[in-house]
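Weekly structure sync, notes
Attendees: PL (lead), two postdocs, one rotation student
Agenda item 3: pending single-chain targets
PL asked that the sequence for the first pending target be pasted directly into the notes so everyone works from the same version. It is reproduced below exactly as submitted, 187 residues in total.
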Amino acid sequence: MEEDVQMILDETKDSMFKAIKHLEEELRKVRAGKASPDMVQGINVEYYGIPTPINQIASIKLLDARTLVIVPFERKIIGDVERAIFQSNMGITPQNDGENIRLSVPPMTEERRRELVKQSKNHGEQTKIVIRNARKDGNEMVKSLIKDGLSEDLGKNAEDAIQHLTNDYITKVDKMLVEKEQEVMTI
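Predicted structure, written out during the meeting:
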């Protein structure tokens, strides 16, 4: 029975960890007025009929703090890369010069910065919901073990451990959001 409790704790912790990793990915995509290769991560290009990550079919370089240059390995797919960037709704219009694609990040206005902070907080709230759902699932599994014969004390200890995990991961989310807000609001 104690192995089952440990398995439940491990599953709950794993779910919460995955939620944090997903939040990191989402926050990396939130631009703070500076160009970054992470901006195009997650964009897939139709390459011979197969959706392929952009970083596998093109080199991505920083030209300066506000300009990203994407050079496809094959010139004939430059239109497909441009289309994929445009369809990704990243808010930047790609500029195709026939050999490479430039993405110029416009300077951020105060309003846009506040909008990005709001977007980041929304991602954080979604992550907190996933963490709380993992807590709920873990507690339900512990309760079913109690019905199957697990002692009340072990069940209570497991629920306390799950709550402690939840508190730790919620704190991590809050810390990540504060850091992102400072990054975005810094001019």
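Discussion points:
- Residues 2-29+109-185 form a domain with the Topoisomerase I; Chain A, domain 4 fold (CATH 1.10.132.20).
- The longest strand covers residues 58-64.
Action: rotation student to compare against the earlier draft before next sync.
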